[in-house]
Amino acid sequence: MKFPRRRFLHMAAGAAVLPILPRLASAQAYPSRPVRIIAGFAAGGGVDISARLIGQWLADRLGQSFVIENRTGGGGNIGTEVVVNSPPDGYTLLLSTVPNAVNATLYEKMSFNFIRDTAPVANIIRVPMAALVHPSVPVKTVPELIAYAKANPGKINMASAGAGSAPHMAGELFKFMADVNMVHVPYRG
After folding, report:
1. Helix (H, G, I), strand (E, B) or coil at 107
2. DSSP letter at 64?
3. Is the peptide bond preceding residue 138 cis, with omega within 30 degrees of 0?
4. I want to staple 95 with a disulfide (CB 3.0 to 4.6 A). Which of 5, 24, 51, 102 is the partner?
5. What is the CA radius of gyration of the chain?
C-alpha cells in the first residue's frame, strides 16, 4: 500500500508533536501557587507602585496571587540577589530597573552577574525623567538652571531615590553634560 506524500507528512508532523503535548499541558498550570515580585526599592516609590500595578493585573488575569516584596538597598542589588538565589521556576520575579543595567559599573564586588543570572520576561514600563526645582529657585528653563548652577557651584542639591538609582544616574549625566557642580543627596526611596 502506497501513502500519498501529504498524508505521510501529516502523520510525521503529528508524531513529532506528540512528545511535546504533556509539556504543553503542564505549562498551562502556571502559576499554581503565589508568585513573588521583588521590588528593589522602597515602598511607595515608582518601582513599588509599578510592581503592585503589574502584580494586580497579573493576578486578575491568571487567577493567582502576586505578592510584592520590597528588598531595598545597594541600588537594587539586594532585591536582585534574592531573585538570583531563588529557584529558577518562575515563582520569584524581579521588577528590574535602570540601576540593574549600571550597577556592575558602580559596585566592585557583586555576588551575581545580572546578564548571566537573570532572563528578561517582559518590558512593562517606561519612565520619563524630569528636572524639578523649588519655586524659590529663580529659574524657569533648563538653560537658566545651568547658568544658575554655574554661578553657584556646589550650592545646589540634587535629590535622588538612592545611589545608583535612575534619578541619580540622570542627575550625574546632567551634571556631566552641563559641566555643573551639584551636591547629590541620596534618599532611601
Report:
1. coil
2. S
3. no
4. 51
5. 24
Alpha helices in the chain (DSSP H): 5-17, 21-27, 46-62, 77-84, 98-106, 114-117, 142-151, 166-178
3-state SS class at 35: strand
User: Is this model's pTM higher than 0.85 or not?
Assistant: no
Of the candidates 36, 38, 40, 47, the one whose C-alpha atom is nearest the C-alpha of residue 124 is: 47
| pLDDT tens string 105-115 | 888 899 999 99
Q: Give the number of other Cβ atoms within 10 Å of residue 92's Cβ.
A: 17
Contact 50, 107 (CB under 8 A): no
CATH number of the domain located at residue range(s) 31-117 in this protein: 3.40.190.150
Q: Per residue in 37-48, pLDDT tens?
A: 999 988 998 899
Please name the residue that has the C-alpha cell 528588598. Answer: 71
Give every CB contact of residue 113 below 8 A, 6+ residues apart in sequence. Answer: 104
Beta-sheet strand order (sheet of 92-94): 66-70, 35-39, 92-94
| CA–CA dist 83, 100 (Å, integer) | 12
pLDDT value at 80 more than 60: yes
- Give the whole-angstrom CA distance, residue 182 versus residue 166: 17
C-alpha 41/C-alpha 49 separation (Å) is 10
What residues are paired with 163 via a beta bridge? none
Per-domain residue ranges for the chain?
A: 31-117, 142-184
